[in-house]
Design a protein that fits this description.
Helix 3 packs across helix 5. By secondary structure, the protein is α/β, with parallel strands linked by helices. It has a single domain, classed as Alpha/beta knot, CATH 3.40.1280. The mean pLDDT is 91. The chain contains five helices and five strands, in the order E-H-E-H-E-H-E-H-E-H. It has a five-stranded parallel sheet. The radius of gyration is 15 Å and the shape is globular. It is 42% helix and 22% strand. Strand 3, helix 3 and strand 4 form a beta-alpha-beta unit.
């Protein structure tokens, strides 16, 4: 089984309004797997492509090597909760190294990291604040682990 999940995100941890919810899901997830949350400061001194490249370098430096990258990207693949659960279970079975979920800054994630990702994951066509996207990632990870463990958390719609 995959040993660790890691959430890397660019933002301001002290002012993140979603931290209470993230902490709750993190505590639930830790019953099944080690999960680490790392907040990286956005590269605000730069603009445009230079900023994205510098932020991608920060994300790479904070990630263990080797790792499996899941990058949030609005142009990525949209998965149902069950499909995500299947993917996460498969990765954890076949990949003994950490799985890293990367959430970019307000500019997104540099294309170099997006194209290198094992999964470009879209949470849908909506633009979400990073704090909310982070909560959704945590909740979906918990839901996926619950499905895999047979915990009655997920319910199919009628």
């Amino acid at each position: 089984m995959g040993r660790e999940l890691k959430i890397l995100w660019l933002g301001r941890s002290r002012t993140d309004p979603g931290e209470v919810l993230c902490a709750d899901y993190r505590q639930r997830i830790e019953r099944s797997v080690t999960i680490n949350d790392v907040c990286l400061k956005p590269e605000v001194r730069l603009d445009g492509r230079e900023r994205l490249a510098a932020e991608a370098a920060r994300l790479r430096a904070a990630a263990p090597d080797p790792c499996r990258w899941v990058v949030l990207d609005r142009r990525g693949k949209s998965l149902s909760s069950k499909a995500f659960a299947v993917e996460l279970s498969r990765w954890r079975e076949e990949w003994p190294h950490p799985i890293v979920f990367a959430i970019g800054s307000d500019l997104g994630v540099d294309d170099s990291l997006v194209t290198a990702a094992h999964l470009r994951w879209s949470l849908g066509p909506l633009t979400l604040p990073h704090s909310l996207a982070r909560v959704v990632v945590y909740e979906q990870i918990y839901r996926a682990l619950s499905l895999a463990a047979g915990i009655k958390y997920h319910r199919d719609p009628l």
